[in-house]
Amino acid sequence: MTNTESTSAVPATALSEAPLLVAARGGTPSRTPVWFMRQAGRSLPEYRKLREGTAMLDACTDPEMVCEITMQPVRRHDVDGAILFSDIVVPLKAAGIDLDIVPGTGPVVANPVRSAADVAALPELEPEQVRPVLDAIGLLLAELGGTPLIGFAGAPFTLASYLVEGGPSRNHERTKALMHSDPDTWHALLDKLAGITSTFLRLQVEAGVSAVQLFDSWAGALSERDYRRFVLPHSRRVLGGLADAGVPRIHFGVGTGELLPAMREAGADVVGVDWRTPLDTAVRRLQEAAPDLPKPVVQGNLDPALLFAGRPALEAEIRRIHAEGRAAAGHVFNLGHGVLPDTDPEVITWAVELVHGLR
Ligand code: CP3
């Protein structure tokens, strides 16, 4: 099944003219598209109610629940994209790696990966292992109409950090130690993870998602030199492998102001920018680094904390970011990182309306 056939309920032209997809191509959308990372889950009372008594990883493998949670912010906020409710560790767990998502902590890995033997023992991902996720995509396509569904995966570096550290890490010290002290084992690890991520994203595209986002959330912990040497080749394999997939590829990380040109080089159609770098500065850096490429398309970059600042301050920031986004060939409005758990959902709805009203 191809991407266009699977969305037969909606004429393919209607979906391809969705503001998110037009902006991602550098065209002129009918309104500024906006969606928010981590818009599903956390901040929504209807999500918390539905999740009661169901562990996170069980929720991610229940197609009806994934579909409902993914739809909740689309109904409530009128956002221009739905992001599949899942987690970056879902394909690792599905492939057979012993890990859990511990409430209040995040992903915890039973046997951290630190030696060549640990890497050699890592499994590959078989398509059948992520069948529930693909079934959820099928359910969503029937519900979403003209709203694009965004698939996603964790990038090799960010996944490696969880596997090597054994869980969330502030400094990524074991991860950096491994890459520098044993580069062969490091590259073997990232090669395995690039394989799992490539398989998973390709399956999501075949199941019908309209865009994909590669989350390299923790790449900003690296110098540009280390990023280029230890990470870029593997992320390029993932994104480059999707060049013919016919869907925009969004590449996002936090604290990556120094890495934006390298992250674009990895094969991004849309470069995600966190709140530390103004969008016009990001565009200038991207253009200076690659004067022969077309003007870049960017996504971002409202500081998630600004959703707590009250409407006058929030409105001023949204207007500033919208104006700075005009420097790009296309701008997908988003946060600079995910929605924080205590965010008032009514403020999110209001912010979406405001973005939609800006010209
Ligand atoms: O925020 C990011 O940087 C996006 C990439 C990312 C995800 N999961 C995607 C995701 C990262 C880095 C993770 C790891 C992870 N998983 C953490 C962070 C731990 C750390 O190192 O600080 C945590 C807490 C989890 C577990 C988790 N993931 C829970 C409990 C939930 C559901 C409730 C919630 O917090 O929203 C998730 C959902 C999740 N993880 C989504 C995504 C894209 C789906 C929600 C959405 O996009 O709306």
Can you offer a commentary on this structure?
It is a single chain. The protein has 16 helices and 9 strands. Helix 9 (156-165) crosses helix 10, helix 9 (156-165) crosses helix 11 and helix 10 (173-181) packs across helix 11 (183-207). The protein has one domain: Alpha-Beta Barrel (TIM Barrel). The chain has a 7-stranded parallel β-sheet. Strands 2-3 form a two-stranded antiparallel ribbon. It is α/β, with parallel strands linked by helices and 359 residues long. It binds coproporphyrinogen III. Coproporphyrinogen III (CP3) is lined by residues 38-42, 56, 83, 85-88, 101, 106-107, 152, 158, 168, 215, 217, 338.
Give the secondary structure arrangement, pairings included.
Layout lengths: L11 H5 L2 H6 L20 H7 L4 H5 L2 H15 L4 E2 L6 H6 L3 E4 L3 E4 L6 H5 L10 H14 L4 E6 L1 H10 L7 H9 L1 H25 L3 E5 L8 H17 L8 E4 L7 H6 L4 E3 L6 H11 L7 E6 L8 H15 L4 E6 L9 H13 L2
Parallel strand pairs: 1-4, 4-5, 5-6, 6-7, 7-8, 8-9
Antiparallel strand pairs: 2-3
Helix pairs in contact: 5-8, 9-10, 9-11, 10-11, 11-12, 15-16
The structure holds coproporphyrinogen III.
Number of strands: 9
From the 3D coordinates, which CATH architecture would you assign? Alpha-Beta Barrel
Q: Report the β-strand fraction as a percent range.
A: 5-15%
* Strand order in space, largest sheet: 1-4-5-6-7-8-9
Q: Which value, in Å, is the CA radius of gyration?
A: 19 Å
The separation of the N and C termini measures 38 Å
How many discrete domains? Answer: 1
- Averaging pLDDT over every residue, what do you get? 96
Number of helices: 16
| CATH topology grouping | TIM Barrel
The biggest beta sheet is recorded as: 7 strands, parallel
Bound ions, cofactors and other small molecules, one mention each: coproporphyrinogen III
Structural class of the helix and strand makeup? Answer: alpha/beta
